[in-house]
Amino acid sequence: MAPPKNVVKIAIQMPGAIPQLIELDQAKPLAAVLKEVCNFWNLNDPEHYALQYADGHRKYITESNRSEIKNGSILSLSIAPDKEAERLLNALQSGNREVKREALSRLALLAPDLTFAGEVINRDGLQRLGAIIEDGDDLGEVLAHGLRAFSELMEHGVVSWETLSCNFVKKVVSYVNMNLMDASVPQLALGLLESLALSSPPLGQLVKQEVPLERLLVHLQVLNQPLQTKAMALLTALLQNASFADRQIMLDYLWRKNLRQFIYKNIIHSSTPLGDEMAHHLYVLQALMLGLLEPRMRTPLDPYNQEQREQLQALRQAAFELDGESQGSGLSADRRRSLCAREFRKLGFSNSNPAQDLERAPPGLLALDNMLYFSSHAPNAYSRFVLENSSREDKHECPFARSSIQLTLLLCELLHIGEPCSETAQDFSPMFFGQDNSFQELFCVCIQLLNKTWKEMRATQEDFDKVMQVVREQLTRTLALKPTSLELFRTKVNALSYSEVLRLRQTERMHQEGTMARPIVELRERLKPELLELIRQQRLLRLCQGTLFRKISSRRRQDKVWFCCLSPNHKMLQFGDVEEGAAHPAPESLPDKLPVAEMRALLLGKDCPHVREKGSGKQNKDVCELAFSVSYDAGEEEAYLNFIAPSKREFCLWTDGLSALLGGAMGSEQTRMELELLLAMETKLRLLELENVPIPDQPPPVPPPPTNYNFCYDCSIAEP
């Protein structure tokens, strides 16, 4: 029979006695339970005793927390908290150093318990501990236990930090500034000052005045990790409490003292694993460091500010310096303004007056700062980006200024610039400690990534938001890997191309739909040959229907049209010139034929002879993406049948069909997408009857063979 819900089975122990196994009735008063326990061990005065957890935090059991006791808990019978507090505080008055040390050690051990802490505080225990700390007669274990006990008692919040005197604070600060042999004393003093700085701004200001940054740097550069952690904790607390101007001055000083390099080399890349507390403080330091960008992020551009107008002109001149000098000389003021407006539009601003683009805050002036940094620190990449896109005439130009403004906003969102620090987060990026101007350098990498992704997507202005979504995903995925340096970030994010993002999305979607289970993967592999054959037949059927292709002459005129198709028996390519606007001719009317048996290879893009002959002009780059050729035997020489597809889709259909005729694999993006779509549809159709039935990752085990086969019926034996 199960015990009642309000009864738990526990063990109670006491030094030198046989433990008791009892069923604790939670409805019974705790005083009555203590009386029964004391009676079992023949102890008088049960009110002088209390129950504690035997391990871990040694928490006292009270009426308010007794519901936390679980079945199997081990408790111990100990002196009641009020009696223990009185005994220990009396021991602090002893002149014997060992007695005082033992009492402080016991106080520090029990102080985390709220019940015990309340009894100590009610008996003026904080004042007695404060006197020991202020006296500082013993700078060893006695002082260390005193600091630990005092900090634990204050952490309960029963007494306000505001009540501490300036003399007390200065005395604790002196322990930080001393060169002590026992590292535990400055470590505990640093922890106490951190709590004080976070809890009391006035006393925190006093700590800031009394603790020089040089001293914190000394503690940070020791090999003692706990001391390093406490020094970093106090440093971040002082930075958080400082005004924006003071914080900037403090961080500039620390950076000049090479704190960033020390953190990167000796803390982040230390042989000792980074603790959770240090990781949190590095996250806070990173947030405060990036937070210095917030005022610029929230300040819109002022069109009447002369300095900001000059910065915009410098940005324009860095891209169009030669054009501006040659075209702008000798022009009237109106023509010069018109030229500047046109160049700003080429630079990628949405308005001829760039101030209108930068009026939105965020990202405000931070976007202008990033563009200026990119133009001055990576001038070749900047000029290449702007000139490459401003000279395009096919609506595929990537607007530099608009992209920079949106990218700056995206980076601010991903890095939580301007947001308050979390109290528990540990999500810092090591690369921000790897070099100076880390945010601006990150922008330089990301703006070039955006341009690369734009070209991979063959995007137009209408696709701007789609490109930014892909870039957001590229940055989010790469930042989640926590690259240890900007170069590693550059390598990883550039490897995450647009096609790779699509593949990852598809894989994640399949995982969410449960289509990556092993039986499903095996089913997809079995279906794949059948579906590839279906796609192959469709491609050949499309070749039989034929397509009109244009011939491009040496003057780049697309003035001739020719038609090509595959014969119904798939043995001949039939082709010939046709009139502009004419309907598809009948295959038998086409004058030229190429037997499939004589075809040797399929060439794509730059490998095609008609692309090589046209050179590397700007227009030829687009033609190159749609060009393909078929090589065949023409007597003793090799000849080519050259194509330029009217669209990307036709290019994929024809190259797949010709590859199939040549016995090769159909490797176009169109085939990959169609195969994935057909696999998904066919798999879902096959699994309709298994809806809501969980599919195991592993097949069920095959049972062992039977011990005998007497159940088998021999059909060859005729019945009588």
From TrEMBL:
Function: Involved in cytoskeletal rearrangements required for phagocytosis of apoptotic cells and cell motility. Acts in association with DOCK1 and CRK. Was initially proposed to be required in complex with DOCK1 to activate Rac Rho small GTPases. May enhance the guanine nucleotide exchange factor (GEF) activity of DOCK1.
Single GO term (MF): SH3 domain binding
Keywords: Apoptosis, Phagocytosis, SH3-binding
PROSITE patterns membership: ELMO (PS51335)
Domain of life: Eukaryota
Domain ELMO: 307-479
Single GO BP term: cell motility
Originating organism: Sarcophilus harrisii
Protein name: Engulfment and cell motility 3
